[in-house]
Amino acid sequence: MCPTSTGGSPLGGLLFGLARWIPFAFDAVSYLFVTLAALFIRGLLGPDRAEEKTAEPTSVRQDVGEGLRFLRRDSFLRFLLLWAALSNCTLAGLAFMFVVALRHHGASASVIGTSESIVMACGLLGALAAGRIVRRVSGFQIVVTMSWLMVAGTLGIAALVARPWPAALCFGSLVFFMTPLNVTFQARMAATVPDRIAGRVMTTTSMAAQSLKWLAPWSAARWPTASPRPRPSSASPPCSPCWRSPST
User: Fold this and answer.
1) What is the pLDDT of residues 100-149, one digit of tens each?
2) What is the b/e burial string over 27-62, where b = at least 16 CB atoms within 10 angstroms of the residue's CB?
3) Are 35 and 42 in contact (CB under 8 A)?
4) Angle 139-160/109-136 helices, nearest 10 degrees?
5) pTM over 0.85
6) How far is CA 230 from CA 19, 57, 236, in A?
7) 8 A C-beta contact, residue 108 and residue 17
């Protein structure tokens, strides 16, 4: 995912610079190719367990309900649901405001795309280093470090947003450590959840983790903007001491 995002961001910015509808058309065509490729899949995609061959088919509601019942009995998974929902909402808001703030400071579409590419490249580096990090650092330390990095990264992005490249590196540091964190959570889930209901629990966890992401753009759109730059009154002379140029 990171390699495609790394190349896709600057490409999307380039296409958007040509015409606003072009990147959306390319995205629609890509989904069309994925759909056609899925139609040619002939093999089985899951394990063929003998004990499940005679089991009665269940509905989606029943599967989700069974996953929720298992999640309620495990304190770690309950913590994971809450932490993932809040962190995903925060990161989605940062990603949204990152683009809006860069555009507000005059960045072009290609600069914004390249900045996002830098962020995704940091995520790719985090994926390559995830194995070493997880082996040397405990899961508790990874969670605590990532929690504080989200606070520091948010403040850093806000301070550096006028300079795209440092802001992108600051945002990329968050994405770098997100992959080891996901590895820690997924490894714990694999060791805790029985294989029989692994798909149901993971689907329920994924739905809960993404449940608050819609709040990010909604909240960002209602966040109070900076006050407009003061202008001299028409009744005051141009050299009034109440109005000073930025250089002074």
Assistant:
1) 888 888 888 778 878 888 888 888 888 888 888 888 888 888 888 888 88
2) eeeeeeeeeeeeeeeeeeeeeeeeeeeeeeeeeeee
3) no
4) 160
5) no
6) 35, 67, 13
7) yes
